[in-house]
Specification:
This protein is an alpha+beta fold. 22% of the residues lie in helices and 29% in strands. The strands form 3 sheets. Strands 3, 4, 5, 6, 7, 8, 9, 10, 11, 12, 14, 17 and 19 form a 13-stranded mixed sheet that branches. Strands 16-15-13-18 form a 4-stranded antiparallel sheet, with no helix packed on it. The protein has a two-stranded antiparallel ribbon with strand order 1-2. It is globular and about 65 Å long.
């Protein structure tokens, strides 16, 4: 068989197995050669390819962007609305199958999933893969290189609060628009990989966002069980407006694509098992979708969190945590104490209900309105 005949055979197999997809969807995902294209990155069947999604500079790139001073972020010498780049790897299987998008680094100080997605592509043999994997190694490069929690050092915005983004917006909004167009819209399934940010001591958990149709909700439920984390937060309230979907995973779900959000690792550390958990979860999903052979290690006894609350600081000051992640708490348990900058107690922070501490801020500085911790209520069996 000649090389051209082999390529034609692969294309025919893709077209036969994807007969349920519309011509427009197939044209979006493949070229006549069977290649998969994301931006300028092209992966032929049985190969992987890496490159950058280029995010153009803003229309006012020569001027500085106002940043909320209370967050402690001010534009430095490079604090203008310049462009940025998003490193992406596309792994194109030799066999037909779905497209799975994996997004790490939405928050630049969340290192565990970033490190997991650094080493993951080399562990996937494209010739054994059914379908395609899009790996976003670092979604928020300004935050990653700037070592900032939550917010971009350029525009002071949280990337996971500006979806689906705007091509004429600030850099975070332009990043979101690029990921929406080039990654989310090209995927069949999506995982937004997070961990405890540089200030958050966190126990592993994931989100089941039951905000779609019953069929879609069941698909996301099966995804979250297959990923393998035993604590699962049930989220039933997410924006429905397609122009203001806000969150990465919600943007996918509102477009009819099953998606989950996962949390593994803590405090921006690299010496934990957070990266291992993220990587293991992704391989579980590849087996769940039959993109790789084998069976996923599903959660056998999931702990469903039917209600959760993020506690936010009423003041700017110093936070002294009094609990640890994964600690069981009763209603009214002291979670921490806020003080002013002279050590005077300002307010006690207590658990709003009985449950488990999913994360707690374990570093001293806190600004008004920022999270202090999250408590989850366990769903009765």
């Amino acid at each position: 068989m000649t090389k051209r005949q082999a390529v034609m055979l692969v294309c025919l197999l893709w077209l036969r197995c994807a007969g349920s997809a519309s011509g427009q969807e197939m044209a979006k995902r493949t070229e006549a050669s069977g290649n998969f294209v994301v931006g300028t990155i092209t992966a032929a069947p049985g190969t992987r390819a890496s490159g950058f999604l280029e995010v153009a500079k803003g229309t006012d790139a020569g001027t500085r962007i106002p940043v909320t001073v209370i967050r402690g972020i001010k534009p430095g010498p490079k604090g203008t609305d310049a462009g940025t780049r998003i490193p992406v790897t596309v792994i194109r299987g030799i066999k037909p199958g779905p497209v799975l998008a994996l997004i790490a680094g939405t928050h630049g100080y969340e290192y565990s999933p970033i490190l997991a997605m650094q080493r993951f592509p080399a562990k996937v043999e494209p010739r054994e893969l059914a379908g395609t994997i899009i790996v976003v190694h670092v979604a928020n490069m300004p935050s990653f290189l700037g070592r900032t929690i939550y917010y971009s050092p350029v525009d002071g915005k949280n990337l996971n609060r500006v979806y689906p983004g705007k091509d004429d917006g600030t850099v975070s909004e332009r990043i979101a628009a690029s990921i929406t167009r080039e990654v989310i819209d090209r995927a069949d399934y999506l995982v937004d990989l997070h961990c405890g940010d540089g200030n958050e001591a966190l126990r592993p958990y994931s989100y089941w966002e039951a905000v779609g149709t019953p069929e879609l909700n069941e698909k996301t439920r099966q995804m979250v069980l297959a990923f393998g984390l035993d604590h699962i937060v049930i989220e039933t309230e997410r924006p429905a407006d397609l122009a203001k979907t806000v969150y990465t995973s919600n943007t996918a779900i509102r477009r009819g694509k099953p998606a989950i959000t996962t949390e593994t690792g803590l405090l921006g550390r690299v010496d934990t098992n957070g990266a291992d958990l993220a990587e293991a979860g992704v391989f579980n999903l590849l087996r769940h979708f039959k993109m790789l052979s084998g069976e996923p290690q599903r959660v056998e006894h999931p702990i469903w969190i039917d209600r959760s609350e993020v506690l936010r600081s009423p003041v700017t000051g110093i936070f002294h945590a009094r609990v640890q992640p994964d600690q069981a708490v009763a209603k009214g348990t002291l979670l921490g104490v806020l003080t002013d900058f002279f050590g005077n107690a300002v307010q006690e922070v207590r658990a709003p209900f009985a449950g488990v501490v999913l994360y707690i801020v374990a570093t001293p500085p806190v600004s008004q309105g920022e999270p202090l911790g999250m408590v989850g209520h366990l769903k009765p069996e």
